[in-house]
UniProtKB/TrEMBL annotation:
Domain Endonuclease/exonuclease/phosphatase: 228-428
Organism: Nocardioides gansuensis
Protein name (record): Uncharacterized protein
GO MF annotations, alphabetized: metalloendopeptidase activity
Residue ranges annotated for the M23ase beta-sheet core domain, each copy included: 497-589
C-alpha cells in the first residue's frame, strides 16, 4: 500500500530565500486556468472538472467503474466508485504501476504477500477493483462514513496517512459521475448537503480568526466556536485545535480542512461556508522543524471557488513564540509564509488568519516591523497595523496581555472593516474582517491569463508538450523522502541549496513532474554526468533533475507527466543516493529569482494540468 502518495498535507517547507516576484493582482479571483492560445489535451485523455487526466488514467478509471457496476453488491451504488477512484488517486495517481512500496503493485498498490492476489492479478484493474470491493462491503457504514475512513479501513495504511484519501474525493466524485452516466445509469453520486441559505456577493467576504484556548473542555469549545460562526462568516481560521476531531470543526453549513498527521499539522484549521464556496485545492506546509518545544510549525491552506468563478485562498497559521532554542524560527515562519502567499496569490486573493506570537511590539519593534515590511513588499497588508493602531487579538490577561499576536492579512484584497470580539472561554479575542476581494464590489473574475507569469506563448514546442497533470518527480509512494531542504546552507553548497532532495535508493525511477521538452547539459560537474531539464519554453516553467545514474530520454524529446526520464544515482556533488529537484518558473539560471521552493510548488500544483501550474 502507498504510504504517502500526495503528501502536500504533511511534507511541505516553503521558501527560505524570500521569493518576491509576487503577483498579488488577482482581482476578485481568477477564472479556471485557460491557455490563451488553445485548449490542449492529451490524446486519449479527458478533462474532469478542472483536471486533465491522461489516457492511462482514464483507462484505469473506466475499467474500475465498470468493475464496480459488475459487482452485485455495488451495481447500483456509484458511491462505491468514488471510494475506489479516490483510493486509486491516492495510491498511484490512478496508474497501473509495476512497482511500489515493498511488493505493492497496481493502481491500488495491493500487496501479493498480504493475500491480495498474484502479481499479475493485482495489476489487473478489474481483479484489483473486485477484490477491493469484497473488502469494502465488509466495512461497517461504508456507504455513509467519510471516504477517507472507509478507504483506510480497506487499505490499512500507517496511521498518519489515513486521512489523505479525502483530498481526492471531489475529483473522484466528478470522475465517477462522468463514467457512471456514460454507462447509462440514472444513479447519482453522493454529494455533501448544503444548508440551503443564500450567500453574500462573493466580492465582499468576511473572515473570522479565533485562537480557541486548548485547555477548555468540549462544551466550552463548542460554545466559543458557535460564537465564531454565529453571524455566518464566509471563512474561519482556527488555532490550537490539534486535539479536536473533524466533527468538532464542522458546524452546520461549514466544511473544514484539518489534516490527519502529526499533532503540529493539526494545530490549525480553515472552515468555509458550503453554500457559497467549493473546495478547489488544499495543503499543509511545514514552516520549520526544530527539536525544541514549539519548534515545529505548519500552516494549513485551502483554495476555494464561488459559482461566479471567483477564487480565493485562505491560510491558517500559528507561529512559535520566541525563547531559548527557538532563535530565528520566527524569521523562517515569516519568510515562508510570504512565499506561500506568493504561490497561492498567482490565481487570486489570499487571506491569512493566525496567531503570529509577536510579543509586545513596543519592546520588539525591529521584529514587528520586519514582519510588516515583508508583507508590504509582497503587496499585502494587515487589517490591524503591527506598530500602529491596536493590532491583532489583544489577549484578555496574563502573559499575553496587550500583546500583538493575532492577525488577519490580505493580499490582492482590500480590508474595509475590522473588529475584535471577546470569546467567553478563550484567552484571545476573535478578529473579524470584512474584505473586498480585489477591491471589486461586483466580484467579477479576473482571467488568470492576465496575471503575470501565467500566460503561454503560442509556441508549437510548448503546445506539443502541454497536457497531463503535475506529479511527483519520484514514485508517489516515495514522496515522504522529500528532505524539504531548498534554501539550506552548508559545506556542500557554494551559496545555498537550490532544490529539494528526495532521499531514495539508487535505481529508483525519476519521473517528469510535468509535460515538456527535454534539455540535457553535460557541462555541470556538480550535477554528475547530466543536468536534465524538462522545459515548457523560453521564460517559462522548467524543472531540473540531477545526480542520475542512467538516462531514458534524449535532447528534444517531448515527455508527459510521470514518464520515466532516468534513474536516481549518486553522481556529482553528493554524499549518497538521491534526486535533486529544482523548479524555475521562468527557465532562469541556478540562482535566478525564478528559482522557487519545489516543495511549495508541488503543494500548489500537484494534480493540476500542465499549462495551469504556477
Amino acid at each position: 500500500m502507498s504510504r504517502a502518495t500526495k503528501l502536500a498535507p504533511l511534507l511541505l517547507v516553503t521558501a527560505v530565500p524570500i521569493l518576491l516576484l509576487l503577483t498579488f493582482v488577482g482581482g476578485s479571483g481568477a477564472e479556471r486556468p485557460t491557455d490563451p492560445c488553445t485548449t490542449i489535451s492529451v490524446p486519449g485523455g479527458e478533462q474532469v472538472g478542472d483536471t486533465q487526466l491522461d489516457a492511462e488514467q482514464m483507462q484505469v478509471a473506466t475499467e474500475a467503474v465498470r468493475a464496480v457496476r459488475a459487482f452485485e453488491a455495488t451495481a447500483d451504488k456509484p458511491h462505491a466508485a468514488v471510494i475506489v477512484l479516490a483510493t486509486g488517486f491516492q495510491e498511484s495517481q490512478l496508474r497501473n504501476l509495476d512497482y511500489g512500496d515493498r511488493d505493492s503493485l497496481g493502481f491500488l498498490q495491493q500487496r501479493p504477500s498480504q493475500g491480495w492476489g498474484t502479481p499479475d492479478q493485482v495489476r489487473d484493474v478489474t481483479y484489483a477493483t473486485t477484490t477491493f470491493l469484497h473488502h469494502l462491503i465488509e466495512v461497517p457504514g461504508w456507504e455513509t462514513r467519510r471516504v477517507t475512513e472507509v478507504a483506510a479501513d480497506v487499505q490499512r495504511p500507517a496511521e498518519e496517512y489515513r486521512g489523505l484519501y479525502e483530498q481526492w474525493v471531489p475529483l473522484a466524485t466528478d470522475l465517477a459521475e462522468q463514467l457512471w452516466s456514460t454507462s447509462g445509469s440514472a444513479a447519482t453520486v453522493n454529494t455533501p448537503p448544503t444548508d440551503g441559505t443564500t450567500s453574500a456577493v462573493p466580492g465582499l467576504v468576511r473572515l473570522h480568526h479565533a485562537n480557541l484556548f486548548v485547555g477548555k473542555n468540549q462544551a466550552q469549545f463548542r460554545e466559543d466556536l458557535g460564537a465564531v460562526v454565529a453571524d455566518r462568516p464566509d471563512f474561519v481560521t482556527l488555532n490550537e485545535v490539534y486535539h479536536r476531531s473533524p466533527g468538532d470543526l464542522q458546524p452546520d453549513g461549514y466544511q473544514a480542512w484539518h489534516p490527519a498527521g502529526p499533532r503540529d499539522a493539526r494545530d490549525t484549521a480553515v472552515l468555509w461556508r458550503t453554500d457559497t464556496w467549493t473546495l478547489a485545492g488544499k495543503g499543509t506546509v511545514l514552516m520549520h522543524n526544530r527539536n525544541v518545544k514549539w519548534g515545529t510549525r505548519y500552516v494549513n491552506w485551502v483554495t476555494l471557488t464561488a459559482a461566479s468563478g471567483s477564487i480565493v485562498s485562505v491560510i491558517s497559521g500559528h507561529a512559535s513564540p520566541g525563547g531559548p532554542g527557538r532563535e530565528g524560527l520566527y524569521a523562517e515562519f515569516r519568510t515562508r509564509l510570504v512565499s506561500l502567499t506568493a504561490e497561492l496569490g498567482t490565481q487570486g486573493p489570499v487571506l491569512f488568519g493566525g496567531d503570529l506570537n509577536i510579543q509586545y511590539p513596543h519592546r520588539q519593534p525591529a521584529q514587528a516591523k520586519a514582519f510588516e515590511d515583508s508583507y508590504a513588499a509582497a503587496g499585502a497588508r494587515t487589517t490591524y497595523g503591527v506598530l500602529g493602531e491596536p493590532a491583532g487579538g489583544w489577549a484578555t490577561g496574563g502573559a499575553h496581555f496587550n500583546a500583538t499576536i493575532d492577525y488577519i492579512i490580505t493580499a490582492g484584497a482590500l480590508p474595509v472593516r475590522h473588529a475584535t470580539t471577546g470569546l467567553r472561554h478563550s484567552d484571545h479575542r476573535m478578529l473579524s474582517a470584512e474584505i473586498q476581494l480585489g477591491g471589486d464590489p461586483a466580484g467579477a473574475a479576473t482571467p488568470l491569463g492576465s496575471i503575470s507569469g501565467n500566460t503561454h506563448a503560442c509556441d508549437p514546442t510548448m503546445l506539443a508538450a502541454s497536457g497531463g497533470a503535475v506529479v511527483y518527480p519520484v514514485p508517489a509512494h516515495l514522496a515522504s523522502s522529500n528532505q524539504n531542504n531548498w534554501g539550506s546552507h552548508g559545506a556542500h553548497w557554494s551559496a545555498w541549496h537550490t532544490g529539494t532532495d528526495f532521499s531514495v535508493a539508487c535505481g529508483t525511477p525519476v519521473l517528469a513532474a510535468h509535460a515538456g521538452t527535454i534539455e540535457i547539459d553535460t557541462s555541470q560537474s556538480w550535477a554528475g554526468e547530466w543536468l536534465v531539464k524538462v522545459t515548457t519554453g523560453p521564460r517559462h516553467l522548467t524543472t531540473w533533475y540531477v545526480h542520475m545514474q542512467t538516462l531514458r530520454v534524449t535532447p528534444g524529446q517531448i515527455v508527459q507527466p510521470g514518464q520515466q526520464i532516468g534513474e536516481v544515482g549518486a553522481l556529482g556533488n553528493v554524499s549518497g543516493c538521491h534526486l535533486h529537484f529544482e523548479v524555475h518558473l521562468k527557465n532562469g539560471p541556478i540562482y535566478g529569482p525564478d528559482n522557487v521552493d519545489p516543495t511549495t510548488w508541488l503543494a500548489v500544483n500537484l494534480g493540476k494540468p500542465t499549462g495551469t501550474e504556477r
